[in-house]
Model the fold of this input.
Amino acid sequence: MRNLEVVISPALLPFYNVKGKIVVIIDILRATSSMCVAFKTGVEKILTLSSAEECKLFKEFNFVIAAEKDAVKVPGFDLGNSPFEFENPLLEGKSIALATTNGTKAIKYAEENGALNIVIGSFLNIDTLCDWLNNEQEDVLLLCAGWKNKFNLEDTLFAGAVVNKIGTNFKIDCDSALSSELLYKQNENQLELLIRQSSHAKRFSLIHLNTDDVKYCIQMNTAPVLPILKDKYFLNNI
Ligand code: MLT
Done:
C-alpha cells in the first residue's frame, strides 16, 4: 500500500525519503493558488525560481515576470502574487517566470531532494489533484511551504483536507498527516474564520492588501487544473 506523509515545513524535508515520490507543493497564501489560477486563465507554462533577481533575467526572453517578497509585489515586476492578478485574459498563452518568498523555494527543495514528480496543490484544484493522486502509483509527500521554514496554519489545513479525501487509499504512518487531518476535520466548516487568524492573513492587513486574497484562496475547485513540473517548466496536465 502506498505511503502518504505530510511535511509541515521545508526545513524538515531532509528527514524524509523523497526520492521516487510524488511531492505536492502547498502554498495556499498564495503561490500555489495563484499558479492554479494562471493555468485556468490559459497560461502556457510557469518557470519557478528561488529569487526575484533570477526571475528578472527572463524578461528579455518574453516571459511575464512575477515576484513577491514578504507578501509585497517586487517593484519593477509585471505581477506580484495575488491570484486576482493571474485572472487577466492577456496572460493567455504567455510564459510566466515566478519567484515567491516560500512557495517557489519549496519547489526547488523538492527537486534537490529527488522528487519523481512535483505537482501543485491548492483548495482551488483540490479534487483534480486528489483524483490524479489516486490514479498514480508512487508514495506521496504533501510539502507545506510554510513561512520562512516555520509552520503556517493554512498550508497544514490544506494538507489535512487532502489526507481526509484520499487517506483511506494510503498507509498513513506519519503523525503530521494524522495531525493535519484532525486539524482540518475540526475546522472544515470554518476555514475562512480560522485562516483569517493566520500570521499571513495578518501580514496582508499590515501591508494594506487591497484584495481579499484569503477569501479567494479558500474557494473549492474553481480552478480544475493540475500544474506538474515537466523538465524545468510547470505545465497543466489536464
Ligand atoms: C509564499 O511564497 O509564501 C507566498 O507566495 C507569499 C505571498 O504570496 O504572500
